[in-house]
Amino acid sequence: MLLYIRLLKESLSFALNALRNNKLRTLLSLLGVTIGIFSIIAVLAAVDSMKKNIESSISGMDKNTIYLFKYSFGPTDVEQWKRDQFPQVKYEEYQYLKRNLSGVDQMSYNMFTRNESIKYGDNIVTSIRVKPSTNEFFDIEPFTIEKGRLFNESESNSGVPVIVIGSDVAEGLFETNDPIGKQIRLYGQRFKVIGVLKKQGQDTFGDSNDIAVFFPVNFLRKMYGDNNKSFTPAILIKPEKGIDIEELKAELTQKLRSYRGLKPDDINNFFINVLSGFTDFIENITGQMNVAGWVLSGFSLLVGGFGIANIMFVSVKERTNLIGIQKALGAKNKFILFQFLFEAVILSLFGGIIGMFLVWLIAIVLTYAVDFDFVLSFTNVLIGSGLAIFIGLIAGIIPAISASRLDPVEAIRTGM
């Protein structure tokens, strides 16, 4: 054990001398390893951070939540021209499914629409996310109320002009004043503020309830009807716990096809999107990103490996005389082999540490600059360190073997 500690100490000393005495040559040789490790760890960290933020964004929602509407979350075999002809889901279909579909915990009818401006007195807040829905939506997506209340079933069914606003909207319109009971203007109509949501922050997709408002979807239906192209209606379904999601999808498909009068040979003119399917789609994309990152970064690592090998061959040549003396004094081939192999690993590890340090710096900057939780995990640090050690071993093995096989007499004569 003491022998290997001594070997490691001497190898570290030789590696540091190589860095000091041949700064430019060593820097250029380590650049490939640094760039390769940086690229791979940056991709892995970015993908891990994105997955973590996505999981955090939907953590409060049941992953079996179904989005029923005319669009698909992921790739589909249905041609674009056919999808363009699909009808929008109707409020009457929501009522029919709510009465007849089994295994459902909650079901809501929502409309997705463009952002709007909202006004109170002389104060205007622009680019507000408008989220009209039925009252069941508050039991599907997690909400935390800070002041007031959410609208109830009676208000939802009758479409009264009541509104729940996000914390940033409340601050922009009312500053430090209490918003509850105040009248604000949206779509040229007056809405009574009945609730303010607790501050949430922005999720991975840039969405946030802090800059959103919620009001009964029937109010919008009374104003614009059901065929306005500015609105995309959707039915959200939260299944009961323990329900077989495939059986629920099959029953949902059968009932909606029957309601719409589709023939047996007609394709479904709607899409049943399960939230877990969306996360699977995201994982597939991130997996492809990981593969692409490994392939592209592999070239840098290959160049870095050749750079380390070049340093080691030069080092063997410069220290041929010293190797001969060590062997003459009784140093075994194994001692010489490990000495150069450790040196190659240490040099490669230097390059890897520099690459991971750069990733760490960028992670800190991005976290504060773009409000995105960019994390360099301990697992990724281990992967980076392991890769650097592996590259050092591969690049240093041939120079180390050649050094260990030198004839001591010829080695000493070479240095004279």
From TrEMBL:
This is ABC transporter permease. Pfam families: FtsX, MacB_PCD. It is a multi-pass membrane protein. Its main location: membrane. Residues 295-408 form the ABC3 transporter permease C-terminal domain. Residues 26-254 form the MacB-like periplasmic core domain. Belongs to the ABC-4 integral membrane protein family. The keyword Cell membrane applies. InterPro entries: ABC3_permease_C (IPR003838), MacB_PCD (IPR025857), Macrolide_Exporter_MacB (IPR050250). It is found in: Cell membrane. Keywords: Cell membrane, Membrane, Transmembrane, Transmembrane helix. The chain crosses the membrane at residues 27-47, 291-314, 335-368, 374-398.
